[in-house]
Amino acid sequence: MKLCVGLTGGIGCGKSKVAKLFAELGAGIIDTDVIAHQLTQSHGEAIPAIRNTFGNDCLTPDGALDRNKMRALIFTDDVAKQKLEGILHPLIFKQTQARIIQLQAMPYIVIVVPLLFTSPGFIRLVQRVLVVNCAEETQVERVTARSKMSPAEVRQIMAQQTPRTEQIRLADNTINNDSSLENLSKQIRELHKIYLATQSGI
Questions:
Q1: What pLDDT, on a 0 to 100 scale, did the predictor assign at position 156?
Q2: Confidence class for position 202, pLDDT limits 50, 70, 90
Q3: What value does the mean pLDDT take over residues 119-147?
Q4: Which residue, of 35, 51, 110, 143, has the greatest Cβ tally within 10 A?
Q5: CA end-to-end span of the chain, whole Å?
Q6: Which strand (E) or helix (H) includes residue 135?
Q7: What span, in angstroms and rounded, lies between the C-alpha atoms of 186 and 178?
Q8: How many other CB atoms are there within 10 angstroms of residue 139's CB atom?
Q9: Is pLDDT at 76 greater than 90 in this prediction?
Q10: CB atoms closer than 10 angstroms to residue 117
Q11: What is the CB neighbour count within 10 angstroms for residue 183?
Q12: Nearest CA-CA partner of 27 in 111, 107, 104, 132
């Protein structure tokens, strides 16, 4: 099996950008957020269970998950959050396993998992953990710029994620995404060499 690197980090740290740069170097990429969006779009595999559990109020007129309503619900209701995770996580995990098999021709595989440290199944899938890190203010600025969320909502999400000090402690490698794209690319190229060498030793 190919080396699987678990890529994680707080909201707004730049995980998608890092994954894109790894892809440009030839790595296979599996983004669990992308899988989750596919599962919850209109006619997605998770929609029947979501409808049965939460009703049509949490769906858009075309039958996709209404992300704003669901986000508001799970922020205030831990039971609802657990129910949603109980629906989505097994489906995401199953699809991730299938895609790992499909990507065996790639030099190595990067799996983007925002909640990696609270997902034991995914921890067992990966051999290395890579954390993308940046300043908290940078996280807030990036997320508010790309979404309709307020700074308070972004900080609420950040508060629910694994603390950055703990993420860094548990990481095998870290990337700092506070400066230029050139600096980010340099860090990724260095890690690319490490992962190629690691794969050769497996």
A1: 87
A2: low
A3: 95
A4: 110
A5: 9
A6: none
A7: 13
A8: 24
A9: no
A10: 20
A11: 13
A12: 107
